[in-house]
Amino acid sequence: MADSHQRSPIARMNPFGRRISGRAVKIAAPLALVATLAPVGIGVVAGGGGVAPASADLGGAFSAASGPAPSRAPQVSRSVPRVAWTKDELARQATARAVRNAHVRLWTTDDLTLWSLPGDQAEKLGTVKAATSVLVTGRERFGRVEILRDRQPRWVKEGNLSATKPIVAAGGLSMAPCAATGGSDLGLTRDATYTLRSLCAAFPQISTYGGRDGHGEHVDGSSIDAMIDPSNTTLGYAVVDFLLAHASELNLNDIIYRQRIWQPGVGWKPMSDRGSITANHYDHVHVRTN
After folding, report:
1. Domain residues of the chain, as ranges?
2. CA atoms within 13 A on the CB side of 14
3. Contact 155, 146 (CB under 8 A)
4. Per-position pLDDT tens, the chain of length 290
5. Which helix (H) or strand (E) element contains residue 127?
6. Which residues pair with 260 in a beta bridge?
7. pTM (two decimals)
C-alpha cells in the first residue's frame, strides 16, 4: 500500500509555480474569505446597510472585479452668502420706498432752499419758488420735510407747505404782512388779504384799514376800507388808480369812492346819497374782492 503520507501526484501549485502544502491551503482559505468580506463589512457600516460611498473613501477596497465604484453625489454648499445691510443702504431703501409712495401734493408758500439731507451735513441743491405744487413723502426730521423735485428727494424747511395754493404777489403787489394793522389780516378772505397787503406796501402813509365786520359787504370778509382824509383826494385817487391797474390780479368785484362805484365790464356809475361823508365814501376807498 502506498504510504498515506505520500504526496499526491497531482501537486497543488501556487500562482508562481510552487507547490503549496495542504496546511498552507487551509490557512489561505480563511484569509481569502476575510479579505473578501472586509469591503462588504465596511460598506455596511459606512452606508448604514447600503453601498459604500466610494473606493477612495475606503482605501481602494473596491476592485476591478467588483465593478466601478459608485459615483459620489455632488456636494451642496450649505453656506448661503448673507447680505450685511449698512446704515447707508437701509437709508437708501427707506428713501426709495418714500419716493414710490409719495402721492400727496402741497403748495410752497415761500421761495424755499432745497437741501440734500435733513441734518447739519446737508448740501444746498437750489431753490423752489413759492406757489409751486410739490409731491411730499410724509417724512419729517430736524425741522425739515421731504419733497420730490424731478422725482429726486429733497428737504425744505417745515411750515412752508400748504394744501391751498398761496397768492404770489405780481409786480407792484405784495404778500408781506401789513404793518399798519400790526400784521393782522383783519379776518379777510384770501383775495381780500392779498389786496390789503398790496395796499399797505404801496401806500405806507395809510394808517387805518377796515376789514370784516357786521355791515354790508364786510360781513363775509371780502371787503376793505382804506381810510383817507376827505381833503386828500390826490391820495384817494392814487389808491383808486392802483386798484384799477391790478383789478384782474386782485380779483376785484367793485371799487367805491366819492359816491361812485366801479365794476368790471361796467365802469363807473354814480350812487345815491346815503346821508353822510362816510356812507358816501368820501373819507375812504372801499374795495371788494370776489
Report:
1. 17-52, 102-162, 179-289
2. 10
3. yes
4. 444 444 444 445 554 445 545 454 454 444 444 444 444 444 434 444 444 444 344 334 334 444 555 555 555 545 555 555 687 787 788 888 888 888 899 999 989 999 999 988 999 999 999 999 999 999 999 999 999 988 889 999 999 999 998 888 888 999 999 999 999 999 999 999 999 999 999 999 999 999 999 999 999 999 999 999 999 999 999 999 999 999 999 999 999 999 999 999 999 999 999 999 999 999 999 999 99
5. strand 124-128
6. 257, 270
7. 0.58
Q: Residue 209, Cβ neighbours under 10 Å: how many?
A: 19
> Considering only CA atoms, which of 171, 159, 183, 179 is closest in space to residue 110?
159
Matching CATH number, 102-162, of 2.30.30.40, 3.65.10.10, 3.30.1490.270, 3.90.1740.10: 2.30.30.40
**Per the structure block, which three cell numbers stand in for 257?**
369812492
* Burial classification of residue 6, based on how many CB atoms lie within 10 Å of its CB (0-12 exposed, 13-18 middle, 19 or more buried): exposed
Q: Which residues pair with 270 in a beta bridge?
A: 260
